[in-house]
Amino acid sequence: MCLRFVFLLVTQLAASLRLSRREEAWKTAEILILRHQLAVLQRRQPRRPKLNWADRALLATLLSVIAKARRHRLRLLVTPDTILRWHHDIVRRRWATRSMRGRTGRPATRRNIKALVLRLARENTQWGYRRIHGELAGLGVAVAASTVWEILKASGVDPAPRRTGPTWPQFLRSQAEAILACDFFSVDLLDGTQAYVLAVIEHATRRIRILGVTLHPDGEWTAQQARNLIMNLGDQADRVKFMIRDRGSNFTAAFDAILAGAGIRTVLCNVQTPRMNAIAERWIGGCRRELLDHTLVWNQAHLRRILREYEIHHNRHRPHRSLHGAAPLKPLPQPVDLDQYRVRRHFRRRHDQRISPGRMTWTRLSAPTITSVAWSWAGCPSGSACGHAG
Fold first, then answer.
1. What are the beta bridge partners of residue 202?
2. Environment class of 201 (CB within 10 Å of its CB; exposed 0-12, middle 13-18, buried 19+)
3. Which residues contact 143 (CB under 8 A, 6 or more apart)?
4. Residue 192 backbone zone (phi > 0: left; psi -120 to 50: alpha; other: beta)
5. Which of 5, 4, 33, 3 shows the shortest CA–CA distance to 17?
6. Do the Cβ atoms of 234 and 241 come closer than 8 Å?
């Protein structure tokens, strides 16, 4: 309070000096500045003099009275630009203090409104934030839809209207036995052409089926590959209910009609959303990293041959993490109980013949595939009659 009073007093004094004759006001301000600088220098300071907040406020106020043309002629401890910066800082702090007197920003939402929003969301699981906002408006509660969204989000409740419905990953896991996924990928050949490969993968077993390779994947060729797939599935076609594919122009209405005739529903991915067909995309990436990136493919015949070999390797030998290390067509063997096959050592002592340490005799036990080692010793190495086991 004292500093503020001093600052206001000096400000009023400077205003009164402006009302007087200009030349006398300048001279008085210059004298006051020089006297105050002498007072600062007379302070006992080990290093260069330091100005506190009161010194800066006084110098800035007095310097504002003097004209700009005369400021550079003064002998000051600091530059005039520094004093002007102090003056601007004082003004900025004054307005900042005035603006902080009252509460700023958006007012907080009342607790009863938050409780009502959460109660509506809890008792009506199918309602989203838009529906809750409409119900609140019908009750006369003035609240924005974005505020309802923030309340639900802060409480850990999904603002989407399908809170109880399965998500896309949950749907894929629950229906994995009935889901197939297909996709195209291209391969650059050494003859300058580009071949297109159509592959189908089963979500449950991760079994891959490479349907064909072509240079022109038109709708007729794709429809024929759908017929071949139905024939390859055989009796397994009855358990397949969904086919996931993208929205490429290679898949025509004939492709979907052939699958629909077999009871398979086509599920389209969103535009530029490869994560909706993540399993097929993951296999294509693995095929490129494990095979195509390390092989020079000459022509279509060469591509078909190496893809056929890779398909056999993938389905019969390659372990899969989702299958706990098993291959799609080769389940894990039954675990072996090692307690049934134990190695027993037999130590024999012979008095009539001395056998050097290290001589051994192999003895076959009752188990047909397990043999054990029987060591024979001719007594203790020291020559005593007792047996010694090494």
1. 180
2. buried
3. 109, 113, 117, 133, 136
4. left
5. 33
6. no
pLDDT along the chain (390 residues), means of 10: 65 60 68 76 69 74 71 68 74 73 70 90 84 88 88 84 65 82 93 93 92 93 93 86 91 93 91 87 93 91 94 91 85 78 66 51 44 40 44
Using alpha carbons only, give the angle 305, 308, 311 rounded to the nearest 5 degrees: 150
Q: Which CATH architecture has domain 170-323?
A: 2-Layer Sandwich (3.30)
SS (H, E, C) 9-78: HHHHHHHHHHHCCHHHHHHHHHHHHHHHHHHHHCCCCCCCCCCCHHHHHHHHHHHCCCCHHHHCCCCCCC
Q: Locate the domains of the chain by residue range.
A: 2-99, 111-154, 170-323, 340-377
| CA–CA separation, 61 and 7 (whole Å) | 9
User: How high does pLDDT run on average in the chain?
Assistant: 78
Residue 117: how many other CB atoms lie within 10 Å: 26
Check residue 5 and give left, alpha or beta (phi > 0: left; psi -120 to 50: alpha). Answer: alpha
Instruction: Give the CA angle between residues 154, 160, 164 to the nearest 5°.
Output: 100
Q: How distant, in Å, are the alpha carbons of 120, 242, 362 from that of 63?
A: 65, 83, 110
Segment 99-134, tens digit of pLDDT: 666 656 677 888 899 999 999 888 887 788 888 988
206: number of Cβ within 10 Å: 22
208, containing H or E segment: strand 208-214
Q: Which amino acid is at 336?
A: V
How many other CB atoms are found less than 10 A from the CB of residue 144?
12
pLDDT in tens, 152-208: 888 888 787 665 566 767 777 778 888 999 999 999 999 889 999 999 999 988 999
Nearest to 307 by CA among 326, 323, 284: 284
